[in-house]
Amino acid sequence: MQSNQSERIKYLVETLNEAAKAYYAEDREIMSNFEYDKLYDELVALEEETGIVLSNSPTVTVGYEAVEELPKERHESPMLSLGKTKSREELRDWLQGQEGLLSWKLDGLTVVLTYQGGKLVKAVTRGNGEIGEVITNNARTFKNLPVSISFRGELVLRGEAVISYSDFEKINAQIEDVDAKYKNPRNLCSGSVRQLNNEITARRNVKLYAFTLVSAEGVDFENSREKQFLFLKEQGFDVVDYIKVNQENILEAVEEFEHRISDYDIPSDGLVLTYEDIAYGQSLGRTAKFPRHSIAFKWADEIRETTLMDIEWSASRTGLINPVAIFEPVELEGTTVSRASVHNVSIVRSLRLGIGDRITVYKANMIIPQIAENLTGSDTLEIPKVCPVCGGATQIRQINDVQSLYCTNEDCAAKKIKAYTLFVSRDALNIDGLSEATLEKFIDQGFIHEYADLYHLDRYEEVITQMEGFGVKSYQNLIQSVDTSRKTTLPRIIYGLGIANIGVANAKMLCRHFDYDLERMKQADVEELSAIEGVGEVIAAAFVEYMHREENLIKIDNLMKELEVEIPQIDVSAQTLTGKVFVITGSLEHYSSRNELKEIIEQKGGKVTGSVTSKTDCLINNDIASTSSKNKKAKELNIPIITEEQFRSEYLGIRE
Questions:
Q1: Of 280, 450, 502, 530, whose CB count within 10 A is highest?
Q2: Which candidate in 38, 84, 105, 289 is catalytic?
Q3: Would you call 363 a catalytic residue per the annotation?
Q4: All domains in the chain, ordered by first residue
């Protein structure tokens, strides 16, 4: 029996250390927080029962070694992690009649800051608790961190560097490669804080929230932890939100934090309770790993048992195929959930999943649905050999120690995420709030299979509002934007379909030619289209090929049922610029943008192109004397260069 327990201890130590290395040193996750906590608690119990504690046990060591790229420095005193509990009653009893401060436990990167003579002189990451990385130059770029304070003595404090959910969403939206996107704000923050080039850190909008004052030379805080916090606020630091508690009101305070967490923009994975009486807390000493003056409270996951109904495999733009568990709906943290991401093949296999298995589910940090355990463990789920979107062959690829499923078909429709990005862009349906990153999430979740599905996102309100970077307000703004886009024009639709070589100008030209009749456009042949000036055989062939595919026509028909298309009433007498070709460059005075002037020209039958050619009638540029490439080209071709005022006077008949 002891031998079996010893082997189990060795396995748990190795597994937990591997997970800690991935999390702390490599900015990636190979297991959920739920699974880590479960294995950690099992290890603690086994060590207490057997008396066996290995030298590299995570119950003895703290964190993982710092990476080599940044200078290292040993902390003056070890930065210990905190003991933890998920029991609210245990948290209350821990106070032992004392007062305490209850605050957020932020999920970022811990940093120790030293000020001397009122200036920030050093910033060091927590590292492994003994040795951290020097990131002083990076810390100076933190958005809310004072680099100069009024206090002139030596001041040492600890704080959590974090990136908010909203900033995380914005930064990820700028990354086109889905495999390069950050998994969560904590990973992004860790990578940002530890950059060698602090210009990159500065662009990431990192903020720091102080949670401990280590020392302030010569200041008497009258034995009060709260007075330390107030002092830090006076020096200009943002301090973690906290509530002063005792045994009578602590449960109410925990509940207050719980109500706030769903809308809290800063990543948090629990609460911290610290004795208000500094001397009392210090008198309790410490264990090998934990100080006794504070304790961490982790939300007790509300777990529900349900039945796994299906695994939906959703392909993304890069070919990565993500498994999503579909299960019988259950109530979790006040909402109904029926699906949860399983992330990759490695996790599918570790959970030994099979359709019909009894599973337990929870919400990570009370927000994101996850599978906790598989009670059946049938391990009968087959990994798809073909892509669910295109039917192409799939391949399991291993990157580091994580196996994931990929579609090998380069023409897979799921890889064309940019098609949806184009469809919602400003010149197409103009749907705000649907970045490429957000679209990819929605596609991965199975919300979007064709354009019409964008107009039914309200079916997934509960799931969307729980996603990272989304809340009730952002969801409402998105749905409002979707509804606003229902009223649109045919040129926007044609351009938004992403037909090869059909740009904004060509879409408008085609619509005008066919009198904004979509049915006529569907039935047009190459000969008719090629005869339109400015179209040509290549564009005509691409348009006809698109309109001859039955699946495309079905998607168009489904889309049109969702839209209210405005048909312009064309005043032939107002088409005063028919046949004229213009190029616009430089800044404008009478129009908010070049696009506004372009719209006016096109409404009057004219055409606006991006470059000067022999077919250009005139170049509009308020800086006629400019030596820009467009001006030079116009002069070479003897194309007139006119100001905005001249254009308005000569072509629009506006004289001021």
A1: 502
A2: 105
A3: no
A4: 2-50 (1.10.287), 72-297 (3.30.470.30), 304-407 (2.40.50.140), 416-485 (1.10.150.20), 489-566 (1.10.150.20), 572-650 (3.40.50.10190)
CB distance 96 to 164 below 8 Å: no
Cross-strand partners of 291 = 286
Q: Tens digits of per-residue pLDDT, 146-165?
A: 888 889 999 999 999 999 98
CB-neighbour burial class of residue 611 (10 A; exposed 0-12, middle 13-18, buried 19+): exposed
Q: Are 211 and 162 in contact (CB under 8 A)?
A: no
pTM, rounded to two decimals: 0.50
Integer-rounded Cα Rg, in Å, for the chain is: 31
The b-or-e profile of 95-131 (16+ CB within 10 A means b, else e) is beeebbbbbbbbbbbbbbbbbeeeebeebbbbbbbbb
Q: Where are the alpha helices (DSSP H) in 453-604?
A: 461-464, 472-485, 490-496, 504-513, 518-523, 526-530, 536-547, 550-560, 594-603
Name residue 202's amino acid: A
Distance of CA 141 to the CA centre of its chain: 22
Per-residue pLDDT tens over the stretch 567-576: 877 666 777 8
Residues 6+ apart with CB under 8 A from 494: 502, 507, 510, 511, 521
- The residues with which 161 forms a beta bridge, in sequence order, are 109, 208
Residue type, 306: T
Residue 467 has φ and ψ, to the nearest 5°, of -70, 150
Q: What is the DSSP letter of 379?
A: -
Give CA 126 to chain center in angstroms. Answer: 25
